């Protein structure tokens, strides 16, 4: 069985994305940052520069949570169509769709962003950590 189709690998990758979504949506900045390697990189055109390293990632996630509190906006990260496109013993290359859905009091939910994640994951015990995430926005 190919590692790209191994059900255990797929389950672990899905678990990582679910955990990340709940952590950032719940305001657990340190927990979200801990899903990256110590020198992990998050690069998105939605932000001015890539964020590198656990401390910077935690600060980034804390600013994201604070911005939501300031506006009353609740955002949910919804990761779908997870595809392990390449696997080696020391890394996975994964792509997935990320929808960010926002709600405000008295308003219907709205799509804030639709993006594609391009991740390089490395093993961490029984799971995976993000070594690098490049986000591509469908509508810049």
Mean pLDDT: 93
The strand order across the widest sheet is 2-1-6-5-4-3
**So what's the overall shape?**
globular
DSSP strand tally: 6
Compressed to H and E, one letter per element, the order equals HHEEHEEEE
Helix/strand/pairing class, anyone? alpha+beta
* Share of residues in strands: over 45%
Distance between the termini: 38 Å
Rounded radius of gyration (Å): 15 Å
Biggest sheet architecture: 6 strands, mixed
Give the helix tally.
3
| Unreliable segments of 5+ consecutive residues | none
Helix content: 25-40%
Description:
With 140 residues, the chain is α+β, with helices and mostly antiparallel strands. The protein is built from three helices and six strands; from the N terminus they run H-H-E-E-H-E-E-E-E. The chain has helices at residues 7-25, 29-33, 54-71, and strands spanning 36-43, 51-52, 74-88, 91-103, 110-124, 127-137. The longest helix has 19 residues, at 7-25. The N and C termini lie far apart (38 Å).
List keywords for this structure.
alpha+beta; 140 residues
Protein topology:
Blueprint: H1 7-25, H2 29-33, E1 36-43, E2 51-52, H3 54-71, E3 74-88, E4 91-103, E5 110-124, E6 127-137
Parallel strand pairs: 1-6
Antiparallel strand pairs: 1-2, 3-4, 4-5, 5-6
In brief:
It is built from 3 helices and 6 strands, in the order ααββαββββ. With 140 residues, it is α+β, with helices and mostly antiparallel strands.
